[in-house]
Design a protein that fits this description.
binds adenosine-5'-triphosphate; single chain; 12 strands; Rossmann fold; about 325 residues; 8-stranded mixed sheet; 10 helices; 4-stranded antiparallel sheet; binds magnesium ion
Length: about 325
């Protein structure tokens, strides 16, 4: 088997936010958005990230593109610590790692035309010799995402949602990135448009040999687009495996519950619905034990006291559960 090149390696990442509230006492003012997150991203793959609202998906994405500075832990990009890079190497890394956000409208300046937004991004990253060259490159990028010359001088409100997200994609592409973190990039779009934009992501990936981190809470979309998938719960990775392997053999009780909610592909397939009791606990304050302890049907005394580590159960199928060995 051909060995895979690691483009990014995340090691023991923690991200805490301080909550400014007079009602909270000292240890309870810390919100643990990410706890001990470690994984690798291979060049050319799509790594899906799934989990309920508030589990830390966007915080993780923002750490990867350096919009958040991790509280501790490291992010190695092509073997080098992202936060230690200086000068030309730092500029290069900032150019190579881009992000596309959920809301295509708020990511564009309402007073700037599509072509201006794309050219401005290139200018910020020092791309293109002059304005004429950047204008031409903006047109090339817009055409690559299925827009054309008549869309160049339009303002964000003059586009449909799908077209607006295409402008955002063009803007990211104009910088020639290597890795794109896509944070729920189709969630705000109409279902019929979602498929078009997802296929656009796939096409661009093949043509440009891009690597994606694809964040979504839509299990069907993540399965369709991802090579491997990370399942997150309360700021931690609870399971990670290939897309096919995970959907056919989910091992963590949380993943089992999540996947049991998808309707079966065939009417003859019988699948038991796994329901978790209660709500997700708060990420504020110190956490003890397995994050799922309070809701897991298998919970024991040990689960309430100790946090299970993410372990390889064989063949790279990583699971954090005392019941899986
Ligand atoms: N800047 C911030 N300051 C304080 N708390 C924050 C900040 N950003 C995120 N959080 C908190 O961190 C936790 C993780 O948030 P995050 O946005 O990463 O979740 P998410 O998985 O992306 O959720 P969603 O699916 O709703 O987008 C949440 O509890 C959130 O309230
Ligand atoms: Mg989010």
């Amino acid at each position: 088997m051909e060995s895979k090149r690691v483009i990014m390696k995340v090691e023991n990442l923690h991200k805490d936010f301080v909550i400014h509230s007079k009602k909270l006492t000292e240890p309870n003012k810390m919100l643990h958005a990410l706890s001990n997150v470690s994984f690798e991203i291979y060049e050319g793959e799509t790594l899906g990230v799934i989990g309920e609202s508030g589990c830390g998906k966007s915080t993780l994405g923002r750490c990867l593109v350096q919009l958040h500075k991790p509280t501790s832990g490291t992010i190695l990009y092509q073997g080098k610590d992202l936060w230690s890079l200086k000068g030309q190497e730092q500029k290069q890394a900032r150019r190579n790692i881009q992000m596309i956000f959920q809301d295509p409208y708020s990511s564009l300046d309402p007073k700037k035309t599509a072509s201006y937004s794309v050219e401005e991004a290139m200018k910020v990253h020092g791309i293109g010799e002059n304005n004429r060259e950047r204008h031409q490159r903006a047109l090339d990028s817009l055409q690559e995402v299925g827009l054309d010359i008549q869309h160049m001088e339009r303002y964000p409100h003059e586009f449909s949602g799908g077209q607006r997200q295409r402008v955002n994609i063009a803007r990211a592409l104009s910088i020639s990135p290597k890795l794109i973190v896509c944070d729920e990039p189709v969630s705000a779009l109409d279902v019929s448009i979602q498929a078009q934009v997802i296929n656009l992501f796939k096409k661009i990936q093949q043509e440009r040999k891009l690597t994606y981190v694809f964040i979504s809470h839509d299990l069907g979309i993540v399965k369709y687009i991802s090579d491997r998938i990370i399942i997150m719960y309360l700021g931690r990775i609870v399971e990670m495996y290939t897309s096919h392997g995970l959907y056919s053999n989910p091992l963590h009780p949380y993943t089992q519950a999540l996947l049991s909610a998808i309707p079966p592909e065939s009417p003859f397939e019988r699948r038991e619905r796994v329901l978790l009791e209660g709500d997700i606990p708060s990420p504020i304050g110190d956490q003890v034990g397995c994050p799922l302890a309070g809701r897991c049907p298998k919970c024991t005394e040990k689960c309430k006291k100790e946090t299970p580590e993410l372990k390889d159960t064989g063949d790279g199928h990583l699971v954090a559960c005392f019941f899986v060995s």
